[in-house]
Amino acid sequence: MTFVLLMFDNFYFCYQNSESNDLSQVLRSASTEDRTVILTILDETLASPGSVLDLFLESFRIGQKTQQFLNHIVVVAVDNQAYQYCISIHPHCFHLTSVTSKLAKRKGSTSPDHLTLKIMRLDLFLEVVKLGYNFAFTEADVMWLRNPFEHFDSVKTVTLACGSNPQGGTTMIDKGLFFMKADEISFEFLKILRFERVLFPNYLDNSICEMVTHKLKGYSVKHLDITYFGGFCEPIKNMSKVYTMQSTCCDNVKSKVHDLRLVLDDWINFTARMSTNASMGTSPFTWRAPKKCVG
């Protein structure tokens, strides 16, 4: 067994040959016919009974035209507890073993820090593209209520949803969802990000939206209409338009679970009324406001 050890600004990422082979096997088993998978990455804080992961998977089961994607989701766990829970409830799980996770836990932390996790994600994305798979990346706290692939561009290299910073300013924030084709442009883009984080350690503080907009030309990128992709910071009130909803403006995991449960319950009530042709009244059916998030 051989190892490839890469060092970037005191962060180490290790891909063993066996791990790369394991990833290839998981991607192959989860892939659609056109070599597309859905990726989400999480740690133990989001993966336990009654957790964000449970709600994430439930959203696919109750969403409109989303059940078909359940068998194409690859849940990437960055620690053993998340991996063990994943394999107990989902067929396609991958344990991301890395030196970075061990470094992050030296001081007793339960999960990799924010920057370390970003590095791990980008390395994973590069490996997935290198293996020839297109992927839709979604944060685990994004509820899939309708099929967002209807809005993805099969020609553009990247399709992504970007929002404005709720605290003001000109920076763009990620909406927890983007699609990337496995082509030469995406491969070179991800390699450049790997190189630039060595030269500019703070570069990864930027959002994916900012990095894509800065590095890729317009003809390679499609920006999604955020009318259809909401979050707690900027909710979509009209349920007839929503495709995904994310628990933005919410740092506490218990609060996320509580308010995402409200989202799914409201969605279930909405779809039940629609399916029975019940009158929607004079005003559209809307979400309950988050109770724990968005103080």
Automatic annotation (TrEMBL):
InterPro entries: At1g28695/At4g15970-like (IPR044821), Nucl-diP-sugar_transferase (IPR005069). Residues 69-260 form the Nucleotide-diphospho-sugar transferase domain. It comes from the Eukaryota. PANTHER family: EXPRESSED PROTEIN-RELATED, GLYCOSYLTRANSFERASE. This is Nucleotide-diphospho-sugar transferase domain-containing protein. It comes from Lithocarpus litseifolius.
